[in-house]
Design brief:
Number of strands: 2
Strand content: under 5%
Number of domains: 2
Radius of gyration: 21 Å
CATH architecture of the largest domain: Orthogonal Bundle
Order of helices and strands: HHEEH
Largest sheet: 2 strands, antiparallel
Shape: elongated
Length: 117
């Protein structure tokens, strides 16, 4: 199920295609991150270790720069699995706040109920 919210002046089909592009970008970033994760961790450790020689640390720094930017952890966004929305995503349920409200009110999340005090 994709989001059908449209951008001003565009059709819902364009919005769906745009959301699919964002999904594919995020998927590619996650694949690059998993591919380069170990290499980046080792290079970061070498770069930050003051007990090693300066030449070795500089070499690790330059190799870290050569890694793709999209292989960094901070480039990955949590996205809603239903609408592909990037903002307002509840990590535990992996859905956006708007879908969470609808699903919780319909009873799809056991133990979750509307607060009243």
């Amino acid at each position: 199920m994709l989001c059908t919210h449209s951008v001003t002046g565009s059709s819902p089909v364009v919005s769906i295609l745009f959301m699919k592009v964002l999904y594919l970008k995020d998927k590619k970033r996650r694949q690059l991150f998993s591919l380069y994760e170990k290499k980046r961790l080792v290079l970061k450790y070498i770069k930050q270790n003051n007990n090693l020689k300066l030449d070795l640390r500089k070499n690790a720094y330059f190799n870290l720069i050569l890694c793709p930017l999209n292989s960094s952890f901070v480039r990955i966004h949590n996205r809603c699995v239903l609408s592909n929305r990037a903002r307002g995503v509840l990590n535990y349920f992996k859905v956006s706040r708007s879908f969470f409200k609808n699903l919780a009110l319909n009873g799809y999340f056991p133990g979750v109920q509307k607060a009243s005090w």
